[in-house]
Amino acid sequence: MTPQKIIQQYDPLPENLLSILHDLQDANQRHYLTEQDLQLAAGHLRLPFSFVQGVATFYTMFSLTPRGKFIIRICESPPCHLLGSTTIAQELMKLLSIQFGETTGDELFTLEMSSCLGVCGVAPAMMVNDEVYGNLTPQRIREILEEKRRGA
Amino acid sequence: MSIFRTHVLIPVDQNTVQAGVFEVKRHLENQLQARKLDQEIKVLETGTLGVVGQGVILVVFPERVCYTRVKVEDLPRIVEEHLVKGRVVRSVEHFTLDIKPGVREPYQLGLAREQKRIVLDKAWKIDPENLEEVLASGGYRGLEKILSSRLSPPAVIEEVKKSGLRGRGGAGFPTGMKWEFTRKAPGEEKYVICNADEGEPGTFKDRLILEGDPHKLIEGMQIAGYAIGSQKGYIYIRGEYDLSIRRMQKAIDQARESNLLGKNILETGFSFDLEIKKGAGAYICGEETALIESLEGKRGNPRLKPPYPVTHGLWQKPTLVNNVETLANVPEILFHGSDWFRKFGTEKCPGTKVFTILGHVETPGLIEVEMGTPLREIVFSFGGGVRGGKRFKAALLGGAAGVFLSEALLDVRMDFESLKDNKAVLGSGAVLVMDEDASILDMLLSILKFFAHESCGQCTPCRVGTHQLLDLADQFRQGRGSEADLERMVNMSQAMVATSLCPLGQSLIMPVKSAVDNFRGDFLKNGNPAGKTPG
Question: How far is B162 from chain A (nearest CA, A)?
Fold first, then answer.
């Protein structure tokens, strides 16, 4: 669906801003909001552009820069931390040769930190797009990345 | 409807999904079909069982045998031996399960013993996406009772007040009083909001209610709407909770189709409708006024209180904001009566509480037990004790904005009052256990990093204070901190209590002060200079 069509599905009420931004970002192949997206939303809801940008930058799920095919979000909250998420984070940075917030050169992986994913029973955990992976070890990380690369 | 001789329940939650539950389910269904058993044996997808980290789980009824860590390779044996011949397969890990509401029975394994379930009673027994099953198992009977007996809204509020139900989101405010304030607030238009922005680290109870028994939440919100005089409710769910949003939406659609939601519900003249709003990743939106701002389509900056949402909430209209677990208690209270509810828990905190047991324990997971259950029982009985036979060092109660308790307080009873007497909080019900090798300093650093990231930045004490606390704590990690720095940390968090705009900045005192008071040695010793928690 084109951004224009997405926007037309919503009544022009300010309360719909978050839902519109979610839909626009989901429709974008690089999982991010373009400046044009924000302008469209602002126009439709009759809100200042600065206001829309303020909202988009407030929430961690929205990105204003292009992201990879697979967004890896590693849980950094205390329960995962206690069970070794720092080691997992370092392993990911090493294997992908990127820092958190960055995307690999082949546009496959983006590394992000996440607040609690609510799967603390299998800590340390991470999500790759909508999939949850738990009981992580450096070995398991290598397997998951390999799996994703093959599937890409 | 055909009669099945055996039911195989397959709990689906994030934990079993990542262990491959759908593949196991597909194989099981194929094998039953191949043997033409699919007319005798029903495979049922349910919400969570509360047992986590044990892989895919199959519960076979009527025997109540619960197989854990089930692999596709185990299925032929389970089908052949158990489902055909009726013999329990001993080579697959299993235990016998029995969780009944209000009944005390001894059980074998940590998480499956001696629970009293009110809010999660049905979560693992029914297919949450099948309204027929929900109705057959007593769904909507609380609402039905009110509407058919024409119980007046003030009488509903009176019943909730008498039950002594208190908010399960963390603060423990009496629910009935909140309802009464909203009812009495002037204004025609009023709203009910369910706070399902569950972001407190270590907490996933609300998600399991949303996914395991979504209709119960709808019912609770309807009763709240009826009581306060509202016709519109919103459920604000964390954007990350994909499955919860889908299940909840499906439940709402089903309820609408059956005239359990919408205009003139069940021909009684009562109208109420619900809408889901999806969050977008902000811890602060769990605070009720920030949540309201976000629901209005703005940045989630908390509002200055008073006025409170009960008089000036969504679009400045009287608004009731309740947590998922709180609302899920309501239907049972109205159906069974407040006296029934008061049989559970303590005098001042009746009912049950859902806890998540995490960290260095043998059996991490989720339990629902009576209010006032001792911490020792939760950690050592339900949690199976400290992992690997190590010594208990501390428990962080209530999530990141929680309190570090030492061994000396293991016998504290887990309810709002007893914890308050011990300068602790129940919070969201997360119990994070740390063994003797864990560094409290390292855990505090992790908490402070979290808060520095999640501070909304609107007020200076919190925006600056969180980072200064982090810098101070980091001094200790580098082996440079002094006694004076410890005092500085406590003083700074106390200043934040006095000057921050919302509970985020005000709550840091709890982890900081409890860590400094109870585990001073962790900050000043040189034995663990890196401050690193061994894996």
Answer: 33
Mutate to test the interface with B, among A25, A53, A62, A77 (most CBs of B within 10 A): A77
The pLDDT mean for chain B works out to 90
Q: Which residues of B touch A62 (CB under 8 A)?
A: 280-281
Confidence check: pLDDT of B390 > 70: yes
- The predicted-structure confidence for B14-55, as pLDDT tens digits, reads as follows 778 878 899 999 999 999 999 888 888 988 888 777 777 788
Q: Give pLDDT, residue B38.
A: 87
Q: Give the CA count within 13 Å in the CB-facing half-sphere of B327.
A: 30
Beta strands in B260-364 (DSSP E): 273-278, 319-323, 352-359
Under an 8 A CB cutoff, do A79 and B432 touch? yes
Evaluate if residue B112 carries a pLDDT over 60. Answer: no
Q: Which helix (H) or strand (E) holds A70?
A: strand A70-75
CB spacing of B294 vs A18 below 8 angstroms: yes
CB B175 within 8 A of CB B349: no
Question: A-contacting residues of B 463-482, CB under 8 Å?
Answer: none
Q: Residue B114's pLDDT is what?
A: 62
**Residue of chain A whose alpha carbon sits nearest to that of B285:** A59
Which residue of A lies nearest to B242 if distances are taken between CA atoms? A130
Give the whole-angstrom CA distance, residue B280 versus residue A115.
12
The kind and range of the H/E element at B209 are: helix B205-212
For A75, the closest chain B residue by CA position comes to B201
CA–CA distance, B204 with B366 (Å, rounded to integer): 8
Residue B194 backbone phi and psi in degrees, to 5: -100, 120
Token reading at B83: 């489902």
The band of B111, judged by pLDDT with boundaries at 50, 70 and 90, is low
**Check: complex ipTM more than 0.90:** yes
How far are the Cα atoms of A84, B507, B512 from residue B292, in angstroms, in the given order?
Answer: 35, 20, 29
How close B285 comes to chain A (CA, Å)? 10
- Going from the C-alpha of B393 to that of each of B82, B314, B418, the distances in angstroms are 43, 44, 21
B126: closest CA among B145, B116, B107, B140? B140
In chain B, what are the domains?
Answer: 6-97 (3.40.30.10), 131-342 (3.40.50.11540), 352-435 (3.10.20.600), 440-524 (1.20.1440.230)
Q: Does A121 touch chain B (CB under 8 A)?
A: yes
SS (H, E, C) B453-471: HHCCCCCHHHHHHHHHHHH
How does pLDDT run across B452-482, given as a tens digit for each residue? 999 999 999 999 999 999 999 999 999 999 9
CB B6 within 8 A of CB B32: no
The residue of B12, B15, B245 whose CB has the most chain A CBs within 10 angstroms, and thus the best one to mutate to test that interface, is B15
Look-up of token digits 């619960």 = B66
Q: Quick check: B512 pLDDT over 50?
A: yes
Minimal C-alpha gap between A55 and chain B (Å):
5
- Closest chain A CA to residue B402: A78
Q: Which CATH architecture has domain A70-151?
A: 3-Layer(aba) Sandwich (3.40)
Q: What is the DSSP letter of B285?
A: G
pTM, entire model: 0.88
Q: CB of B353 within 8 A of CB of B168?
A: yes
Question: What is the rounded CA–CA span in Å between residue B80 and residue A124?
Answer: 36
DSSP assignment string, B139-190: TTHHHHHHHHTT--HHHHHHHHHHHT-B-TTTT--BHHHHHHHHHHSS-S--
Max Cα-Cα span within chain A: 51
Q: From the list A45, A58, A79, which residue is nearest B202 (CB)?
A: A79
